[in-house]
Design a protein that fits this description.
The complex is a heterodimer of chains A (about 290) and B (about 575).
Chain A (H helix, E strand, L loop, with lengths): L1 H15 L1 H20 L15 H32 L16 H34 L11 E8 L2 E6 L12 E4 L1 E5 L4 E7 L4 E5 L4 E5 L5 E5 L5 E7 L12 E6 L1 H18 L16
Parallel strand pairs in A: 1-5, 4-10
Antiparallel strand pairs in A: 1-2, 2-3, 5-8, 6-7, 6-9, 9-10
Chain B lengths: L12 H6 L4 H31 L9 H4 L9 H37 L7 H20 L28 H29 L12 H32 L19 H35 L6 H14 L15 H13 L1 H15 L8 H24 L1 H7 L3 H31 L5 H27 L13 H4 L2 H31 L61
Helix pairs in contact in B: 2-4, 2-5, 2-17, 4-5, 4-6, 4-7, 4-8, 4-14, 5-6, 6-7, 7-8, 7-9, 8-9, 8-11, 8-12, 8-14, 9-11, 12-14, 12-15, 14-15, 15-17
The chains are: A alpha+beta (about 290), B mainly alpha (about 575).
């Protein structure tokens, strides 16, 4: 017991010394430093490549600054009393139940400000964005809409293009697995479902994701604005190889795309096997 | 009201320590039970972090013991099991027993001046049901064909036989069902006890905030656990009896006419209130502790109670924000977004009250106080990042990424855990008659909050960078491999966080048997629990006390010089 008391005393003096605390903080920072300083690393998302991508970025950073502002107030309100109002024997704390009319008014004003500034501001922008972008799924008749059907399965993405005849479920359909080729500058509209469990089509560069559920068809769209190659991920846990369920999106300029589509459609006809029922999944486009 | 509510003191060992009906013993049972599971869930978290930082490398030291079949390597199936069971264990077997089972059983009767819970036998049954649930859950890890791999949310059709035939998933559902049944028993007991057994003078307006938080949580438990219970029953029927509640017709393997989204509705009608089930007691506890240690009345007591009640009412009507990407209709999506945003108003009232409670106080930075201020900090971070998740425009990208993982760990897990630590240290002297070491407590606090905040803030950056959650390996494609450095840094911090918990274990065990003996009222507070003797007599109170003063009358101007608190049983001198 005596040895133990001595040890505790030594620990106390160690802990109370500023050097220990400072070096503790330093050690924690140093633990992270080697990783942080090395080059060739990504610290944020890849640049957006869809026409509504900027909406996500704008909203994200608006919320971020609102949060930084609000959280700073909280931290200051913690720090000031933590330093100024530390325990002193004999001093009495300010006696206040916070039930006066003044306090109630202040609380009401701050509540209203929270709702109007933080909530309503974000809400209005988000609603506008949703109506103009994510939920504004283009109609089939609209000029230039490119339609793709998606069948997700454990653990692959199947994509079906209409092919030369402009109809789904025919011999000249283009089928792609874990690879999707679309034209730049045209709205790409998806309808998707799943063969087995729930999957979620996530294309980070295009700033959207959508679950594809077995037994139901979900719609989603985006409009690429930059040609290039982008990663397709599955965002909903789908079992053993969930982490391997990824693919690549190729956004081609329209003339390159047209050539590719014509070739692929011909190849599709050549490879068509009417016996292969597995490969003949398709549905009439749901309006 | 409660004078004759007594049962005889047990004489044999089993009735005294094992199948005890005494709330004090049951509280300690919940405490040990919760701490053991917190440890198991924590080790799982460490294994998850190891795999993420060093994908496919054998786990050092314990690896060959835990995963002998693969030579210590965590395979994808095991990885899925680990995060599934980590979530289930931490929520249902770690935090719930600690913050509701232990704190509830300990604080409610003592703080309201009762001799026991109103249904002591039900209380005993509640503990042994959750114990059985824990055993079933643990056993499910070792069954042939594998344990559950469907995530703690257990979404069909991944959790139905479409994905796996093993009994692990079924046993998981049975475990959740049993744990839920235990929570319902506890909820009924807590609510009835608070309504029926308050000491004379203990009006609703004088209830300590801890009791308010636990009371509201109990209401949520009783209302919404039955929903998850039914979801689990339907899932078990789908798996065992071949029904198709959640299996749609188009599924190749002989599907029926069910709907997997139906499960998500059922799950989240429970699942979102579950967040508040864990956080309401935390809010109540820190509402009290901040006032106790700032030596000031709880600022806006009525506003805090009102805000907690408002959150309780709103809890079930915001659940749709978990399902924004499932194909929810635009009208529903926007409604749930608006309703979720409204939660920020009562939350703001709580922050306003807490920050004003410590403002111009005479703050004693004891260990419980540190944890309480820690809750304000982490809940602030977690709550504010909730705005991103509630806003569909940002959630469409951030959903199911690490951003969400960071958000809910700070909001629900860290806040509830911090409040639980604060409550354990606070109630320890009365429970065991000894003080926990404040030095080790402070060291534990700082070595917990710093790495914890770093880990989960790192996850915000990872999520914003587009890293999906529940991935076994982020290095297998270039898009995610360029983010691996953050995974490594987060893992270093997580290991520091994990090892810091050993300080708590040491402090807890050492103080339990060798700590400094505690006085009757070491924190100098006025609530009824601290006006009793230490150690507590079998019936808590020889005579049921009469309450004449509120719980937070610290630093009242009428108090004599040199004293800044007054017992709830004492009249204020000025009266």
């Amino acid at each position: 017991m005596k040895l133990h008391t001595k040890m505790m005393q030594r620990l106390t003096s160690l802990w109370t010394s500023g050097i220990t605390r400072a070096s503790l903080g330093l050690a924690i920072l140093c633990g992270m430093a080697p990783e942080a300083l090395a080059g060739g690393k990504r610290w944020g998302p890849v640049p957006f490549a869809s026409d509504f991508g900027y909406r996500f970025e704008d909203l994200f950073w608006l919320i971020t600054w609102l949060c930084v502002g609000s959280f700073s107030i909280v931290v200051i309100m913690i720090l000031i009393p933590s330093v100024r109002d530390r325990y002193k024997p004999g001093r009495k704390a300010h006696f206040d139940h916070g039930a006066s009319l003044k306090d109630k008014r202040l609380a009401t004003v701050i509540s209203a400000a929270t709702f109007l500034v933080l909530d309503a501001w974000v809400l209005v922008i988000a609603m506008t964005d949703l109506r103009e972008a994510w939920w504004n799924i283009p109609e089939s008749e609209e000029a230039g809409v490119y339609e793709v059907e998606v069948l997700a399965q454990q653990w692959a993405w199947n994509f079906r293009h209409k092919g030369a005849d402009g109809k789904f479920g025919t011999a000249d359909d283009i089928l792609q697995m874990n690879e999707l080729t679309v034209p730049n500058g045209r709205s790409v509209s998806f309808q998707g479902t799943s063969k087995d469990v729930i999957h979620s089509l996530f294309i980070p560069a295009m700033r959207f994701k959508k679950d594809f559920n077995p037994g139901d068809i979900n719609s989603v769209w985006f409009k690429p604005i930059t040609a290039g190659n982008y990663t397709i991920l599955c965002a909903e846990l789908c079992g053993y190889a969930h982490y391997q369920m990824f693919g690549e999106l190729h956004v081609l300029e329209s003339d390159t795309f047209d050539n590719w589509a014509a070739d692929a459609s011909e190849l599709g006809v050549a490879a068509y096997d009417s016996e292969d029922t597995e490969a003949r999944w398709a549905w009439d486009w749901k309006e | 009201m409660s004078g004759d509510h007594i049962h005889a003191e047990p004489t044999n060992f089993f009735r005294k320590h094992v199948f005890s009906v005494d709330h004090k013993v049951i509280a300690k049972q919940f405490l040990w039970f919760g701490l053991v599971w917190l440890g198991i869930g924590g080790i799982m978290a460490m294994l998850i972090r190891w795999q993420l930082a060093n994908p496919g490398d054998p786990v050092p030291v314990i690896g060959s013991f835990l995963f002998p079949r693969t030579g210590g390597v965590i395979d994808p199936a095991t990885y899925n099991t680990l995060f599934t069971m980590h979530g289930t264990i931490m929520i249902f077997l770690g935090l719930t027993p600690l913050i509701i089972g232990c704190v509830g059983n300990w604080a409610i009767p003592l703080m309201i001046g009762a001799r026991d819970m109103i249904f002591p036998l039900l209380n005993c049954l509640s503990f042994w049901t959750v114990f059985a649930g824990g055993c079933v859950g643990f056993y499910s890890l070792f069954v042939p064909l594998g344990a559950t791999e469907a995530g703690w949310t257990g979404y069909p059709t991944l959790s139905t036989t479409v994905n796996g035939l093993g009994s692990g998933e079924t046993l998981w559902a049975i475990a959740v069902f049993l744990i839920g049944a235990s929570s319902i028993m506890g909820g009924i007991n807590y609510m009835t006890t608070v309504i029926r057994l308050r000491a004379p003078g203990m009006t609703w307006g004088r209830l300590p905030l801890t009791v308010w938080g636990l009371f509201l949580t109990s209401a949520l438990n009783v209302l919404f656990i039955p929903v998850i219970g039914s979801a689990m029953l339907l899932l078990i029927m789908d798996r065992v009896f071949g029904t198709t509640f959640f299996v749609p017709a188009s599924i190749m393997q002989g599907g029926g006419g069910g709907d997997p989204i139906l499960y998500q509705h059922l799950f989240w009608i429970f699942g979102h209130p579950e967040v508040y089930i864990l956080i309401l007691p935390a809010w109540g506890i820190i509402g009290d502790l901040l006032s106790f240690f700032a030596r000031k009345p709880a600022f806006g007591y009525r506003a805090q109670v009102g805000a907690m009640t408002a959150v309780t009412v709103l809890s079930a009507v915001v659940y749709g924000h978990h399902m924004f990407t499932t194909g929810l209709s635009a009208m529903l999506g926007e409604s749930f977004m608006l309703l979720t945003m409204i939660i920020s108003v009562p939350a703001e009232i709580l922050f306003f009250s807490w920050l004003h409670t410590i403002w111009r106080g005479n703050i004693r930075f004891t260990v419980p106080m540190l944890w309480s201020v820690g809750v304000i900090f982490v809940f602030g971070l977690g709550g504010l990042t909730g705005i991103y998740c509630a806003t569909i425009g940002t959630d469409i990208f951030l959903h199911d990424t690490y951003f969400i993982v960071g958000h809910f760990h700070l909001t629900m897990a860290a806040s509830a855990l911090f409040a639980a630590f604060g409550a354990i240290v606070f109630f320890f002297p009365k429970m065991f008659g000894r003080m926990m070491s404040p030095l080790l407590g402070k060291l534990h606090f700082w070595l917990t909050i710093i790495p914890l905040v770093s880990v989960f803030c790192m996850m915000f950056v990872m999520g914003y960078a587009g890293m999906p959650r529940r991935y076994y390996d982020h290095t297998s494609m270039e898009f995610l491999a360029s983010l691996q450095h953050m995974n490594k840094a987060a893992t270093h911090m997580a290991f520091l966080l994990g090892s810091a918990q050993l300080i708590f274990v040491f402090n807890f065990i050492k103080s339990r048997w060798f700590g400094k003996p505690a006085s009757t009222n070491p924190w100098e507070v006025g609530t009824l629990d601290w006006q009793t003797e230490t150690p507590l007599p079998h019936y808590n109170f020889k005579d049921i006390p009469t309450v004449v003063t509120g719980p937070h009358e610290f630093s009242h101007p009428a108090l004599p010089e040199g004293r800044d608190w007054i017992s709830m049983t004492e009249e204020l001198p000025s009266a």
